[in-house]
Amino acid sequence: MSRSPTSVRIVEVGPRDGLQNEKAIIPTAAKIELIDRLSRTGLRSIEATSFVSPKWVPQLADAAEVFAGIDKRDGISYPVLVPNETGYARAREAGAREVAVFTAASEAFNRRNTNAGIDESLQRFAPVLERAAADGVKVRGYVSTVLGCPYQGAVPLAEVVRVAKALHAMGCYEVSLGDTIGVGTPAKAREMLRAVATEVPMPALAVHFHDTWGQALANLLACLEEGVAVVDAAVSGAGGCPYAKGASGNVASEDVVYMLHGMGIRTGVDLDLLADTGRWLSALLGRDTGSKAGKALAASG
Amino acid sequence: MSRSPTSVRIVEVGPRDGLQNEKAIIPTAAKIELIDRLSRTGLRSIEATSFVSPKWVPQLADAAEVFAGIDKRDGISYPVLVPNETGYARAREAGAREVAVFTAASEAFNRRNTNAGIDESLQRFAPVLERAAADGVKVRGYVSTVLGCPYQGAVPLAEVVRVAKALHAMGCYEVSLGDTIGVGTPAKAREMLRAVATEVPMPALAVHFHDTWGQALANLLACLEEGVAVVDAAVSGAGGCPYAKGASGNVASEDVVYMLHGMGIRTGVDLDLLADTGRWLSALLGRDTGSKAGKALAASG
Fold it and tell me: What is the CATH code for A9-300?
């Protein structure tokens, strides 16, 4: 418990990780409004969109328009996903000042997800990291499937450590460790984070949990106790996992903030405004919010 | 972490705490089938029903028929709720060999819930405990609202400790500490359990979390780390809180078992059979299961 942080930075990934899996076509204006609403909640990091090829992720084909349209506030970073140099160039053209690259700890997953092996994807990132350094652009790195893979099953811990270390060594200021299919449990999440932290300093690590098996907040608690202080989450629990029918999405930002505040850990986020935004998004998507705290707040308000 | 138990006993409360808040009329035969299905999962404690006055809980007015109808297996305890001596007599007549009494740490809640103050309710239990001791009947004690009350808000920790200690001193072999409205967060849950454990031995304590704010598994993890080894849960997350619109029910047994097994903590429960039962119950109630692990298992199966 003594290692738990006194404040946590939430990286809100709803506009990207949440919306990229939606079947419905979401108007560009609504995406912009979502980000602008999130900007008013006190969040400091909002992943805005992805400059992956529209062939792969048609849902975010309007990335440039979205990025141009949002009201970029001082003190808030709006990272965008880029798969390679082409994506980086598009992101820069749109005005992005922080980008994120992504690979996996599972070779099988990375091949299916990006049509490249892990090492090949790292090689693709090298020129992105070089250009970003020259441009003064911050780069975040994602490692997927750190606690399990839908294709290969178990993922060797050593691979998670190796890939996270490589991203950090290449210049990623922060590496986000993602349980993409939400299969992890607290002891395994803790063991994974401890292992990575032997090679990458804890302040450069973030955790990213999906709530597919209902374990996200418990896993997060275990990782907080290890000292992690950056947490990815998506308002209203937006986003599904395209690889598992019935799977739920990211851990809901509202539930994370409620837990952290209840533990006396600061986030700077106004929970009421965040929950309002979650309900607005859920209404837009025509579904119940995936945030229990959001639901409870609505019932008690 | 070192204090985490190596095995946990799940007290399945779905047939009672889950069904008592249902609006739909559930046939007696279905209640019996639910318990019989649960008996085949490896659970060792299944709270079967409540001998509270049918005026208060009409949903469980068939308590005697349910208790008579279930296939009582060796090695499984089937406690039933009793509010007073009258309820105890009815429970005994039906053949109950374990009962549970209940009060709250919040005076306001207890008055609304049972029309009696806390001390008055403890006085009511005294003759029940005496008769139970003479009859060789085990008595479990519940303390509600240990982390917050829908009427009075904050609940003094000293009251939680006092009430838990009183129940234990009166002869309850186990005291279950309930976050009835699911408002707790891990640090508070841990602090509460630690405080109670200074007066009641940890092996005589259980925790009972509702997932209203999405915190149940995280709270449970914090309490496991303190050494608690008995956990109340309801299959499919059955049960709502009648005091908060939109509130979800008990923590889902499936999610608890998935977490515990993932941490190498034994429960003796077959998760697949439990999840089957959860889906059977959800279909009966005409709704989606409230268990994310149950949903994920169905999708992957």
Answer: 3.20.20.70
**Is B223 designated active site?**
no
**pLDDT at B300 (0 to 100):** 81
For chain B, residues with pLDDT lower than 50 are 1
> Quick check: A26 and A284 in contact, CB under 8 A?
yes
Cα–Cα distance measured from residue B171 to residue B154, given in angstroms and rounded to the nearest whole number = 28
**Three-state secondary structure call for residue A175:** strand
The list of chain A residues with pLDDT below 50 reads: 1
**SS3 annotation, chain B:** CCCCCCECEEEECHHHHHHHHCCCCCCHHHHHHHHHHHHCCCCCEECCEECCCCCCCHHHCCHHHHHHHCCCCCCCECCEECCCHHHHHHHHHHCCCEEEEEEECCHHHHHHHHCCCHHHHHHHHHHHHHHHHHHCCEEEEEEECCCCECCCECCCHHHHHHHHHHHHHHCCCEEEEEECCCCCCHHHHHHHHHHHHCCCCHHHEEEEEECCCCCHHHHHHHHHHCCCCEEEEEHHHCCCCCCCCCCCCECEHHHHHHHHHHCCCECCCCHHHHHHHHHHHHHHHCCCCCCHHHHHHHHHC
Reduced to 3 states, what is the DSSP secondary structure of residue A234? Answer: strand
Sign of the CA dihedral B43, B274, B206, B195?
A: positive
pTM > 0.90: yes or no: yes
Q: What is the largest CA-CA distance in chain A?
A: 51
User: Do B247 and A217 count as a contact with CB atoms less than 8 A apart?
Assistant: no
Distance (Å, whole) CA B193 – CA B222: 9
Size of chain B in residues: 301
Whether A244 sits inside 8 A of B296 (CB atoms) is yes
Per-residue pLDDT at B3: 87
- Distance, CA of A10 to CA of A1 (rounded, Å): 20
Give buried/exposed letters for B230-249 (b at 16+ CB in 10 A, else e).
Answer: bbbbbbbbbbbbebbebbbb
Q: Which token pair is A89?
A: 């160039």
When CB atoms are compared, the residue of B214, B255, B299 closest to A255 is B214
Distance of CA B22 to the CA centre of its chain: 16
The answer to whether A215 contacts B255, with C-beta atoms less than 8 Å apart, is yes
Structural tokens at position A260: 């952290």
> Bridge-partner residues for A177, per DSSP?
A143, A207
The predicted-structure confidence for B161-217, as pLDDT tens digits, reads as follows 999 999 999 999 999 999 999 999 999 999 999 999 999 999 999 999 999 999 999
CB contact under 8 A, A247 and B293: no
Identify which of B221, B299, B300 has the shortest CB distance to residue A222: B221
Q: Is B199 left (phi over 0), alpha (psi -120 to 50) or beta?
A: alpha
Distances (CA, A) of B276 to B236, B259, B271, B272: 10, 17, 8, 6
Q: Within A22-84, where are the H helices?
A: 28-39, 63-69
Mean pLDDT of chain A: 94
**CB distance B217 to B259 below 8 Å:** yes
**pLDDT score, position B58:** 87
Residues of chain A found within 8 Å of residue B151, distances taken between Cβ atoms = none
Q: Which of B143, B139, B156 is nearest to B103 (CA)?
A: B143
In this prediction, residue B113 carries a pLDDT of 84
Could you give phi then psi for residue A77, rounded to 5 degrees? Answer: -100, 140
CB-nearest to A218 from B212, B259, B300 is B259
